[in-house]
Amino acid sequence: MPDLTQLAVARSYELLKPLLPPAPARILEVGCGRGALAAELGRRGWTVTGVDPDEEAGAVARQRGVDVVVGTLDDVDLNGLDAVLFTRSLHHLPDLTGTLTAAAGKLAPGGRLVLEEFARERADQAAAAFLYDTVDLLHSAGLADAADDPDGRPADPLERWQRQRGDAAERPLHTGAELLAALEPHGRRIGLQHCETLWRLVLSRVTDERNATALAARLYEAERRQIGAGTLPAVGFVTAVQVG
After folding, report:
1. Contact 46, 20 (CB under 8 A)
2. How would you classify the pairing of strands 188-195 and 236-242?
3. Which residues lie below 8 Å from residue 230, measured CB to CB, with a gap of 6+?
4. Strands of 26-30's sheet, edge to edge?
5. How many CB atoms lie within 10 A of CB 149?
6. 81-87 and 26-30 as β-strands: parallel, antiparallel, unpaired?
7. In the chain, N or C terminus with fewer CB closer than 10 Å?
């Protein structure tokens, strides 16, 4: 798979910067993956530790200069942090209450829980069509892997979304409303912005190295433009609460 980190990291940084405590604050990124965002935050002056269960991803993150714990939040022996950042990882974790309580316990007074996430329930027919029609087109052109449902591909895009991520999935993802509700008891909300994220899901299927960067830019702009025109919902969001 091509490295599409440049645009993705730039957009994440743009969205998260207003929510993060100023550098050189100490940040733990939960679900840091291959460490691209953590490395960028480190270059910009923050002190960042990443945690991810994927050993191979952790090795890549270390090559980028990121201090990484391979494991889960429970394996991180850090306290007095200024922020715990979940980057599109919290929706996968079964125990929202326990996870956020553990994360809040690692913060210094006034620390922040910060989320970059998506609200699966905000996806409608247009959003599902944007995602799956684009992936199917790229797959037909030999530029991406298929996004088929393992039990067969429904003709209706929204049904495909529900089978893969929604209530009809074997392991449905948490909704955005569930994430926000679980976050609320831990502090005062200091921001909530809905944003584009479908382009990231499309690009997770792209295999074409040569054209990946151009595809990323075009897809991002197309989604952003359609959200602005009111023809697509903003499925992604960023938010934070200040604890204590």
Report:
1. yes
2. antiparallel
3. none
4. 67-70, 47-52, 26-30, 81-87, 107-118, 236-242, 188-195
5. 17
6. parallel
7. C
Tell me how far apart the alpha carbons of residues 53 and 57 are, in angstroms, rounded to a whole number.
Answer: 8
Contacts with 6 (C-beta within 8 Å, 6 or more apart), sequence order: 213
Instruction: State the average pLDDT over residues 25-30.
Output: 98
Tell me if 44 sits within 8 A of 20, measured CB to CB: no
Under 8 Å CB-to-CB from 98, ≥6 apart: which residues? none
Task: Identify the band that residue 1 occupies on the pLDDT scale cut at 50, 70 and 90.
Answer: very low
CB 237 within 8 A of CB 119: yes
Mean pLDDT, rounded, for 145-150: 67
pLDDT tier at 224, thresholds 50, 70, 90: very high
Radius of gyration of the chain (CA): 18
Closest by CA to 73, choosing from 62, 88, 57, 89, is: 89
Tokens of 16: 């998260």
Place of tokens 């976050």: 183
Q: pLDDT at residue 151 above 80?
A: no
Residue 2, pLDDT > 80, answer no
Report helix, strand or coil for 72.
Answer: coil
For the chain, give the number of residues: 244
pLDDT band at 15 (very low <50, low <70, confident <90, very high): very high
**Overall average pLDDT of the 152-178 stretch:** 89
Most confident of 46-50, 140-144, 198-202: 46-50
